[in-house]
User: Fold these one by one.
Assistant:
Number 1:
Amino acid sequence: LGSLVICTVLYVAFSHVLSGIATVEDFRTAGREASVTFAIAKYMTGYAWLAKFVTVAILAGFSSVILVMLLGQSRVFYSMSEDGLVPKVFSDVHPKFRTPWKSNMLFFVFTALFGGFIPGDIVGEMTSIGTLFAFILVCAGVWILRVRRPDLERAFKAPVLPAVSILGIVICGAMIYGLGWTNWLRLAVWLVIGLIFYFSYGRRHSRLERESEVSVKTHA
C-alpha cells in the first residue's frame, strides 16, 4: 500500500503540472501518445533537450512495464492452462529454468506483431479499455466473494465493502464511457471471441468441470 500511495501522489502531481502547462485539447488531440513532449515543445521554448530526456525516460518506463506485463501474462495463462481453460502448451515448463517458456515466446511474438502493425493510439486505447474492464471485474469479484464466501482465509481484506467496489466500478465505467464507441466495439469483439473460445474449448476441458463429472458419477 505504501508504494501505491507514493505512485498515486507522483502521478497526480505530474498530471497537475502538465495540465497547468498545456490545455486538455493538446493532450487529447494534438499530442496523443506523445503529449508530454508535445507540451514541452509548444509551451517551453528553449527546452527541447528536456523533451528528449522525457522521451528516453518514457521509453525506459515502457520497456520495464511491458516486460513485467508479458512475464505476468504468461503466468496467468499458465494457471489457466493448469485449470484446463486453455491448451496445455501454455503450461509447458522449461526443464532447466522452470518457467513457462513456450507461453513467454508466444506472447512476445504476438505483442511484437500487434505493436508493430497496429497504430499506437489504437493499441493504447485497447490496452486502457481492457485494463479498466479487468478492474471492474476485480471490484465485482471481491464484492461477490465477500458475500458468498466470507469464510475464506484472506491475506488482505479490502476495507469498507461494498463502497470500495461500487466506487471502483463507477469510476472505471466512467473512464470506459469516455473512450468512445469505437473502443466499446473493439472490447465487445474481444469479449465475443473470448466467450466463443470458453464455451467451445475451456468449459469442456475445465478441471472443475471434470471434477464435477467425477463427483456426479461417484454419487450415482
Note: The chain has a mean pLDDT of 83.
Number 2:
Amino acid sequence: MKAVIWTDVAQSFIMFFGVVLSIVFGFSDAGGIKKVLEIAIAGQRINFFNISFDPTIRYTIWTALLGGTCYASSCACILQTQTQRYMCVNSTREAQKATWMNTFMIVLLIILCGIVGLLIYAKYHDCDPLKAKLVSRSDQFYPLFVMETFSRFPGLTGLFIAAVMSGSLSSISSGVNSIATVIMEDIWKPLTPTRLPSDKLQTTISKYMCER
C-alpha cells in the first residue's frame, strides 16, 4: 500500500506540472487572460449561476450541487481505493487531514482543467477540429492542443504524454491494489478460516493477483 501511495504522489506531481504548463503556454498563444475570457463569454462558455430548473439544460447550479455532492460523497466515503487509505493512517485525526488535503487538491485540479478547457475553446472557437477532420473524436482536442502548442519546444509533448499516463496509471494501480486486498480479506480468508496463510504468503498471493 505504501508503494501505491508514493507512486500516486509522484504521478500527481507530473499531472499538475503538465496541466500548469498547458495553461501557461496556452494563455501565451491565445493573447492573454483577457482575450480568452472575452472569447469564452462571447461563446457563453462561462455561466456559473444558471438557476434554471429545466431538466433538459445540461448544466445548472442545481445539477452541479446535487451531482457533485453525490459523486464526491461516494468517492470519499465508500470507494475502496479511498477507504483503504484511511485505514492506513494512525488516527482519525490524520484521516481527516488527508481527506481535506485530498479535497483541496481535487478541487484545484478541476479548476485547472476547466481553465485548460477555456483555452482549448479559445484556440478552436472559429475552427472546429472535428469538422476540419483534424481529430476523429472530441476527446482528442486536448492532445491536439498540446501538440500544436508545444511543438516548438522539444520534449514538452512527451511530458504531456507522461502526465496523461500518470493519471491513468494512478487509477489503475489503486484499483488493482484494492481488488487484491478485497479478494484476500473477503474471499480467501473466509473460505479458509482454519488455515490462514502467513503474512509472507499473503503478500506473495496479493502480488501474484496484482500481476495478473
Note: The chain has a mean pLDDT of 80.
Number 3:
Amino acid sequence: MASNHLYLVDGSGYIFRAYHRLPPLTNKHGQPAGAVYGFTTMMWKLVEELHAADGPTHMAVIFDASSKTFRNDMYDQYKAHRPPPPEDLVPQFPMIRDATRAFSLPCIEEEGLEADDIIACYAKAALEADWKVTIVSSDKDLMQLIEPGRLDLFDTMNNRRLGREHVLEKFGVEPGQLGDVLALMGDAVDNVPGVPGVGPKTASELIQTYGDLEAVLAAAPCIKKPKLSQNLIEHADNARLSRELVLKGLPREPLQEFLMHQGFRSLLTKLGGEEASAALPARVEDAIPFNHKNYETVITEADLDRWIAEAHAAGVVALDTETDDVDCIRANLVGISL
C-alpha cells in the first residue's frame, strides 16, 4: 500500500497572488471576481499537475482567518504597517472558500492563528503518523519545517521543490537554524524588528559561527566589530521577541484551543496540555453487543447488486466505514457497512 502523502496549500498566499496578477474582473452578477478567477485557475493547475505526478493522498487548503493573531498580543507593531485588504478583495474571500470546497477540498482557518501556524500543526500531526508532507508555499518562515525525505515545500511559481539544499544555499544554515537567522535579520514585510544593521549575510555568519541565537547574544560582548557587538547587546530583547514572532513551532495558548476544537488528543499531550487532553470526550464508546443473525458479509458482485437493489427499493441507505484504527490519521479502510 502506498504511503500517505499530505499536501497543505497556503491558501492566503494564493489569494494575494491571484488578486495582483489579474486586472479587475466581475462575474455575471456584477460582483468583483478577479481574485476568485485567479485562485480557481491556480488551484485547477495545481490539482491537474499533482494528479499527473506523484501526487497527494490527502490535501487541504489553509487560510488566515483574520488580521489579528496571538502575535499582536506579543508585539502590537506586528504587521501593523500593512494596509487593510483592498475593498474589492474583501467580498471575494467567501467566494474563494466556496471555490476551494468546489474542488472537494477542505478549507481550514482558525481565529487567532495565521495560516502558517495551522500548516505547522497539521504537518507535525502527519509526520507523527509517519506520513510524508508537502507544503505548497515558498514562504521562508515555513522552510523551518523542512525535514529531508519527510517534509518539503513546493514553490508553484517556479515549479520546484524546496528542501534542505535550498535552505543551505539561500541562508547558509540548516532548516532548524533558520528561525534564528530570521530573528536576527528581522522582516520588514511583517514588521519583525530583528537587530539593526544585521542583514541575511551577517545573520547567517553569526549562526554558522555560534550555533544559535542565544549563543550569539551571549558572545556579543566579544564580537570584534564594535557596532555589531553594540547592536546585539542593546537589541537582545528584540532579537528574542523576533524569534517568537517568526514561525518557531507551535504557539501554546491559541494552538491548545485549536487542538481541543479538532480533538487532536496526542498533540495536546505533546504540547503539555495533559489536563486539556484528559478533558476531551473519549473517542471510543462502549461496544454494543453485535447481533450476528442480522449480519451478512458481501463478497460477491451478485450479493452487492442485490443489496443495492434493496437500497433503491427502500429509498434510503446508511453507510459506515470499517477501519483498522479509531485514529483518523492512522486508520486504513477495510470495509464498508450498509
Note: Strands lie at 5-10, 58-62, 107-108, 132-136, 151-155, 160-162, 320-323, 333-337.
Number 4:
Amino acid sequence: MKKQQVLFNILYPNAYQPYVLQKIDYVFAGVLFFVSLFIYFLTLTPSVTAGDSGELITTVYNMGASHPPGFPLYGIVGKLFTFLRFPDIGYKLNIFSAVSAACAVLFCYLTLVKLLGFNRSVVGFSPVVHIPVVAASLLFAFSKAHWSQAVIAEVYAFNAGLTSAMFFVMTLWYEEIITYRDEENLWLAPRITLLLAFVMGLSITNHQLPVWYIIAWAFMLVPIIYLIISFKGAVFIKQFQERKFPLIMILIVVIMVIFLLVISAIKPDILFPEFGPPGYRLVFPQHVPYILTAILGGPVWLSFYVAQNSLYTASISRSRQDALHAIFWIVLAAVIAGMVFFLGGAHGIITSMPLIIMAVYQLIQKNDLAKETSKNWVDNFLFLLTWALWLFVFALSVYLYFYFRAKAISPLTEPKPLTWGDTQTLDILFNHMLRKQYPVGTDDYSNILGQIWAVIEYHFSQFGMINVLIGIVGIYYFFKNEPIQWTYYIIASLVFFWSIIDFINFEVNPRSLETQEVFFIQQFLIYAFFIAFGYQAILVLLQSLNKVKEE
C-alpha cells in the first residue's frame, strides 16, 4: 500500500462510493414537498399574526427595509408572492413561508439520502436507506419550531430552506472532489464550487445565522486539502512549492482582511476612538473604505493574479482569448479599486494602497511564472477561487437593494412607503446589515449550564425523548460511516451554539426561551440528520438479527 493512501484508508476503510440519486429519490422528494406543503396550507394563518409579521408584510409590500439586518432577499422574493390572486396580503406572505418550509424538507431528503446511501449498492427502493430518510424528513417537517414558522409571515422558514439547500450543495461538492481525487490534474469541482459560493452568499442576505455554517465549512477545507495532497505525491507538492509567492500573498491578504474587518466593523472604537465612548459599535462614514477594502480586497488581488497568468499565457500562445481574459480581470480589479478610492476619499486611498501595491507587484513580476510547469494546480485553484469570491460578493450585493430603494423613496412626498431607517449612505447601510442597533451579549457566562440545558430541552420539544435518544445513537453511526461529513456537522453545531452564546447570551426565562427557539431551526435540521442515522442503525441491526435467525 502506498504511503499516500494510508490516511484515506483510515477515514474510509470500506472505500468511497457516493450515492447516486435515482428516479425514486426525486419522486420521494416531490411527494414530501407536496405533502408538507398541503399540511402547511391546511394550518396556514389566514392573515397577519403577532410579532414581526405585520412589519415584514408591510416592508415587503412597500419594498422597504425591515428591522436589522433587513432581510433583503426575503423582501425581493416575498414581493413576487404579493402578486398571487388572493385578497389578503398577509395570507400571500404566509404562502411564501409555507413554500420555503416545504423546500427545506425537500433538500433535507436529498441531503439525507446522499448521506445514508453512501457506500451502499442501492438500486430502487432500499428499506435501510429510504425509510429512515423519509421518516427523519417528516419528523423535521412537522417539528414544533419549523411548523410554527411555516404558517406565518416570518424569515425563518425561508432561512431554513436556504440553509437546507446549502447543506445539499456542500454534500455534492465534497462528493465530487473526493470521487475524482485520483485524476492526474486536480479536479476542483468548478461548477459545484461556484454554485456553492453563490448559495452561501445568498443565504446570508436573508438572515445572518448561516454564516456560522459557512465558517464551519472553512474549517472542513483543511483536512480535505490535506487528503487530496496526500494522494498526489511529489509532483503535487512540487507544483505547490512553485507557487510560494502567490500563496504567501494570499495569507497576507487574509490577515489584512481580518484586521480591517475587526477595526472597522466589529470593533470600530479601535480605529476612531474619538467618535464615541469606549466599546461603541456604530459604523461611521470614515469606516466605510476599510469595510469595502476588507470585502473586496481578496477578489481584487486574485483578479490581478489571474490577469498575470493570462498575460503570461497570451505571450506564449499569442492567443487573443487569453489577452482578452487578462484585460477583463485587470479592468474589473481596477474598477473595484477605483470605486473604493472614490467612495472613501483619502481614507479609501490609505486603506487600498497596500493591497494595490501588492497586486501591481504581482502583475509585473515574472519569477513565479517562469517555472517550467505549465499546468500548475495552484493556478487553477486560484482562478476558481477568484470566480467563487466574486460570485459570493455578487450574492451579498443583494443588500444594495436597500441603498437604491432608499434613494428612490427619498424624493417622494409624504406619506412615503414605510421602511426601517434611511439607508441612503453606506455607513447607515452597514449599520443596518451588521445589526448595530442591537446590544451584544455580556461577558457573564454564569447562565451557560442553563443555556445548554435549554437547548437540550428545545430538541426534546421538537422530536420527543425517544427520537432524541435515537439521534445520539445516530451520531455514533454517522461517524462510523462518514467521518468527514460527521466532523463538519459536529463543528457546525458547536460553532453555531458558541455564536449564540457569545453574541446573544440569552437569558434563561420563559419569554427569552420562546424568542430564541426559532434561531435553532437549522440545528433541528442537523439533529434530524442524526436521527435518520439512528433509524438506519436500528434497521441494520434488525436485518442482521433476522439473518442470524435464518441461519
Note: Confidence is low (pLDDT under 50) at residues 369-373.
